[in-house]
Amino acid sequence: MRLVTYEIEHKSGLGVISKDGRWIYPLTSLDMDYKTMQELIENISDSEKQLLDYASGQDPYKIKGAAPMEEVCLKAPIPYPKQDVICLGVNYMAHAEESARYKKEEFNGERPFAIYFSKRVNRATAPGEGIPSHQDIVKDLDYEAELAVIIGREASHVPASQVKDYIFGYTIINDVSARTLQTQHKQWYFGKGLDGFLPMGPCIATVDELQYPPHVQIQSRVNGELRQDSNTRLLIFDIDHIVSELSQGMTLKAGTIIATGTPAGVGMGFNPPRFLKPGDVVECTIEGIGTIANKVMD
């Protein structure tokens, strides 16, 4: 099933998308009173998951408050993450190569250890919401389509073979990045953590919605032009490895968001680089989850 945070008639709520993708069914109509997606992730029972899955297959006239998709305003599924996002750097080989070229570094084709970093987020950017360009300090704004994993229950010292049991679901994020800030400050926190730099959505696809591990197509477009086109089967370090490794000595709480890295085709990978400018529209699409589109603002 696919879960959303949405707004209709100036009221926010949680919903499940109908299986045909045309309707949103409010969770309140199914006697679920969760106020936020974070609360749902932390507390939802197996029987409630089964009810949501069943309800998503029903005709809209059977569900009180069912709303056509085009009449609602989708928000980021987790608008206010409890923690910063855990990110993977250069986790596709082709992106590792283009990143090394941009930085004029040697790359031997090996990536023996995963690169982890934190992405600052006060509020996630909703689908359709503008991305601030921060032109006073940013001259080279870039995009990165990524599959994000959402942890479903507390995870500590989890074997790789059991990771699936700890995953709630998946969403799309655009790891918006300011390249010069990354290089000037010798790390990625500032250049990737500015306000508005975490577009997220359009939904959370629960772990059972996709095959496991999820080998799905991931793409980005700028003004309709295809820029990134890859598949998550090409992750250097897969989801089992990532979650298991992080959980060795680091407790992952329910609702933790882990961005698994971006494939080749980002703006800095072109010669000359093709960075974003105000007015550009960036779309990030992942098979089985959907698409988020955001316009770069002045």
UniProtKB/TrEMBL annotation:
Pfam family for this entry, one: FAA_hydrolase
UniProt entry tagged with the keyword Coiled coil: no
Domain Fumarylacetoacetase-like C-terminal: 85-296
InterPro entries: FAH (IPR051121), Fumarylacetoacetase-like_C (IPR011234), Fumarylacetoacetase_C_sf (IPR036663)
UniProt GO MF annotations: hydrolase activity; isomerase activity; metal ion binding
Key words of the record: Hydrolase, Metal-binding
Single GO biological process annotation from the record: carboxylic acid metabolic process
The keyword Chloroplast appears for this protein: no
UniProt superkingdom: Bacteria
Family to which the UniProt record says this protein belongs: Belongs to the FAH family.
Protein name (database record): Fumarylacetoacetate hydrolase family protein
Organism expressing this protein natively: Enterocloster aldenensis
Classification of source organism: Bacteria, Bacillati, Bacillota, Clostridia, Lachnospirales
